[in-house]
């Protein structure tokens, strides 16, 4: 169950990271409210997951999910470049997340 909670925390990290772009420097009220709520929820779920998961593993997986998701959405939503090095690097992060999960199982 804590791995699911950690995964949800990672998805919320993607939400607040992308949300930061939409706040336009915290000048857009509703975007800022949504971003802050996603940030708080992400941290709360991360904290809950860390009750039983090792701190280093939980934090690395949380950051990895956020990094991969944010980079992919940056490519899709904001037309950021998607060169081969970026794609391969995101693949390595994904492999690292899978490795951490397998090492903890």
Automatic annotation (TrEMBL):
GO terms for molecular function: transmembrane transporter activity. Keywords: Cell membrane, Membrane, Transmembrane, Transmembrane helix, Transport. The keyword Transport applies. The keyword Cell membrane applies. GO terms for cellular component: plasma membrane. It is a multi-pass membrane protein. GO terms for biological process: xenobiotic detoxification by transmembrane export across the plasma membrane. It holds the Pfam family Multi_Drug_Res. The chain crosses the membrane at residues 27-47, 59-78, 84-103. InterPro entries: EmrE-like (IPR037185), Small_drug/metabolite_transptr (IPR000390), Small_multidrug_res (IPR045324). It is found in: Cell membrane. Gene3D superfamilies: 1.10.3730.20. Coiled coil: none annotated. Belongs to the drug/metabolite transporter (DMT) superfamily. Small multidrug resistance (SMR) (TC 2.A.7.1) family. Gdx/SugE subfamily. This is Guanidinium exporter. The lineage of its organism: Bacteria, Pseudomonadati, Pseudomonadota, Gammaproteobacteria, Alteromonadales. The gene is sugE.
């Amino acid at each position: 169950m804590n791995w699911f909670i950690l995964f949800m925390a990672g998805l919320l990290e993607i939400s607040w990271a992308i949300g930061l772009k939409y706040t336009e420097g915290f000048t857009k009220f509703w975007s800022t409210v949504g971003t802050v709520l996603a940030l708080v929820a992400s941290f709360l779920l991360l904290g809950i997951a860390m009750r039983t998961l090792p701190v280093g593993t939980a934090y690395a997986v949380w950051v990895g999910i956020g990094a991969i998701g944010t980079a992919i959405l940056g490519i899709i939503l904001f037309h950021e470049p998607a060169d081969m090095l970026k794609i391969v690097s995101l693949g390595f992060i994904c492999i690292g997340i899978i490795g951490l999960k397998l090492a903890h199982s």
